[in-house]
Every structure is written in C-alpha cells, then in structure tokens.
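User: Some background: our group keeps a shared notebook of sequences we're curious about, and every so often someone picks one and asks for a predicted structure to add to the entry. Today it's my turn. The entry only has the sequence so far, pasted here. Could you supply the structure so I can complete it?
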Amino acid sequence: MTTTGARRNRVETDSASASAATTRVAIYLRVSTGRQAEQDLSIPDQKKQTKGWCEARGWQVVAEYVEPGASAMDDKRPEFQRMVERACDGSRAIDVIVVHSFSRFFRDAFGLEFYVRKLAKHNVRLLSMTQELGEDPAQVMMRQVIALFDEYQSRENAKHVIRAMKENTRQGFWNGARPPLGYKPVDAELRGQRVKKKLAVDDVEAEQVRLIFRLFLEGDGRTGPMGIKSVASWLNARGYRTRGGACWGIGQIHYLLCNPVYAGRLRFNRIEDKTRRVKPTSEHVYCDAPAIIEPSVFEQVQAQLKARNPRVVPPRVVTGPILLTGLAACATCGGAMTLRTGTSRTGDVYRYYTCTTQARAGKAKCKGRSIRMDRLDHMVTSHLAEKLFRPERVAEMLSVIIERRAGKAMAVDARAVALEREATDADERLRRLYRLVEDGGAETDGALKERMATLRATRDAASAALARLTRPADATRLSSDLIDRFSETMREQVTTGDIGFRKAYIGSIVDRIEVDDSEIRIFGRKDVLEQCVIAGAKPAGVVRSFVRGWLGN
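Assistant: Of course. Here's the predicted structure to add to the notebook entry:
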C-alpha cells in the first residue's frame, strides 16, 4: 500500500511539472509617458522581474509586448491590442499573460474586468507578479478593489497635472507640444532644473497666417471674401503647404481662423484630451502671447464664421418665382420669411411674406409679422434703384474701401521695410565676420560658427517673409465711367425683367432684408459692391457673405 501510494504521488508530481513546463507566457510591459520610456529604467526593470518570476515557476516566456509612453485609461494601444488578438485567436499560443501589476494592464476598473473576462473565455489568465490573487470570489473582489484604487490614483494624478499646467499657462509659459503655425517655442527662464518656454513669432510662417486671414476677409484682389474651402483651394493651387508638408484642408483652415492666439490670447484646456469634448468656457485658461494679427481683424473673422454657419443662416434660396425668398427675414427672431397665400371674401388671392418661426412654433416663440409680397418687393427694388444705385452714393461708399486699403498698404510697406532692414543688417553682420576670419582676426571656433549660423538663419527667415509679403489690391482703379455704367445697369435690372434675373442681381449685392414693424432694413457689404462694379454688375462671379457691411437709408 505504501509503495503504491508513493508511486502515485510521484506520478502526479511529474505530471504537474510537465504541465508547468508547457505553460506559455506573454509578458506585457508599459510606462505612461514618453519621458519614462526615454529614460529606459522602468521597462527594463519590469522585464527583469517578470521574466525571473516566470522562470522560478518553470514557465516559458513566448512573447513580449512593450508599450512605451501609452496611457492605460483606455485600450487604444497597438501592442496591447496585438497581444489580446493573439491570445484570443484560437491557436492557444498563450496560456498566461503576466504583468508587473494590474495597473500596467489597465487603470480603468471596467476595462480591466472586461478584458479579464474576454481572456477567460479563451482559457487565458491574467496574473500580476506583485499582486498574486486566485479565482475564488474573495480574491476576485480584491482584484476589483485594486482596479478601483488604480483608476482613482490615475484620475487624481491627471487632475494635479492639469492644475499645474493651468498655472503654467497663467504665468505666460508654453506647456509643450507643437506650437500653432506662425509661432516657435523659445527659452524664457530657468527654474531649478527645468527650462520654461514661451511662444515667439516665426516671421516666415506668420506671413502665411496673415495671408489666410486676408483671403478670408478680403480675397486676393480678384475675388471678394473667400470661404474656408476656397481659401484651402487657393493655397494648395499656389504651392502653400502646412508645417508638415501636407496640403491644406477645411478643418485646418477653420481651426487656424478660430484660434485666439493669433490675436494675442493663448488658450489652454479647451478640449478634453481623451473624448475631444469641448470643455465649459469657465475651465479655459488664457494668457498673453505675441499677436500676429490685430484683435479687431480676429473679431471680424469670428463674426463672419458665426454668420456663415449653416446652423445659423440656411443656404440662400436662389431659384423660384418669389423675388425676396432667402433674403427677407423677421427682425424679431431672425427667421426667414417665406410665401403664404390667403383668399378674401370676394375670392381674391393674396400673397404674403410671413415669419416661418411663428408659423412653425407659434407666437410663444415669435410674435410674427406678415407683409404683402407686392408691397415689400416694390419697396425694396424702388429703394435700391433710387437710393443705393445712384453714382454719387456708390462712389461715396467705395471711397471708404479705398481709404482702408490705403492704410493697410502703408502697414504692409512698413512691415516690408522692417523685414528688409532685418535681412540687410544680418547680412552685413555676417559679411563683417567673414572679413574678420579672412584677415586672421578671429578663429573659427564653435561659438563663432554658431553665431554665423544664427545670422544666416535670421537673414534667410527675413528674406523668405519679405518674399511672401503681398500688398492689398489697389481699389483706385474704379473710374467714374465704370461706376456710372454699373449704377445704370443695376437700376434697370432690379426693377424690370424676369423674376429669376432680378433675384440674381439683388442677391449679388444684398445679404439680408430685415422686416420690422415700422421699417425695412437692407444689409450688404461694401467690398462685395466693389467687386460687382469691377465685374460690370455680373452676379455670378461674386463670393457671397452674410456679414453686414452697409445699411441702406
């Protein structure tokens, strides 16, 4: 009996040893930040300890998955996904996944449990060498408690990091990452062992930023103000590229136009990093930064973007038998006014422009107003013909554009002089250094070479910025004969002829017609008026805008 029992125990021990020897292990190594990965300390230590732990149990390490600089708050990790896919592909290549601690695998309690159960369905276990737990209910609960503490610690650390970065921004420093186009980070001061940086204007890139804002507001001199897509197409067609060398896209142009840093206000903590959710305005942090454009120009751009937003102003109706649809709007709610018909007791049919908001949502939303179609059509067309399209009135409004462009041209000339002076000064300093080296008055040591490189970079940057500098289009080409012909054509086209043509001509000049209780207000833009005069009153060639520029009397 004793001999048989001893033999049975020996057989069971040998069987267990064979099973342990065939246990195939994958180890997962991770650090949270790129800085930790660069220091190359944590990952080698994790690797050494986990391998030693597996070897002590006679397990075979068949794969290593290393994730340097990746957060464990989600599963958006390439190596992690590759490991899980390999463990669950049905080949039974992995029996156990070993980590230094559960926080290396996941720092989200739900995510940890989800993947533990997913692996268990394929007979793959997750083990922590520093937190050895079994599968009984008490130890499963302990693993879940540990996961909750890991998640809490991660969120608490993130809170303190964001708080420190907010304070860094309030003090005017740059928190890192790639700066916006037109800026470069420069060393500002040394605090302990850390170098604090601030943003400085990159002269070459800044000219491209100014060009984008100018195209959006004014156009290139041959067209009116451009839309975002038109700006992107214009830049790509002429060889302009992003900092990364890619073509411009709509999203990139829109983000640039909305970034307040170009008006001198650096913004931080606007978007949630993980979810890309826009945070409340109260959580945004601002500090001063060197401005590339004037704040007033930035505000004009924001007003146009808001007004052009299709959620605010629907696309204009340009076809149909109704003269002012797409232009007429209720002064109370801003809603469009569309055609409604009514029949009198005598059987006569009347047509009205009526507020659609009141018709759709009732008087609680807008008190609403209606006006006879023939009356509003006559009032608008007669006012345009008698008041706006008079040669002296058109010339008066366009004179403002001429004066404004003259002022902008002077500013561009001044900037060009400054850039030319900077390039000339750097070139002259460089020539003096060359002469000094040739005459034997200085040795070409490291400091002198660095100084020469700095001067060459300054000269080249100033020259490149000067080459990209463009002067505003000249508006003085508008002769009195051109204005007279335009005025006569427009008076004729808006008052007589087919409805479709009249509507097209009015739409080329007018942005919006507000109908109020006691008055009608007509809005348009002076720069669009100028483009129509140059084009000879052709409605098809003008880029439209919804921003109010002039107000008819």
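Suggested note for the entry: The CA atoms of residues 74 and 111 lie 7 Å apart. The two ends are 118 Å apart (CA to CA).
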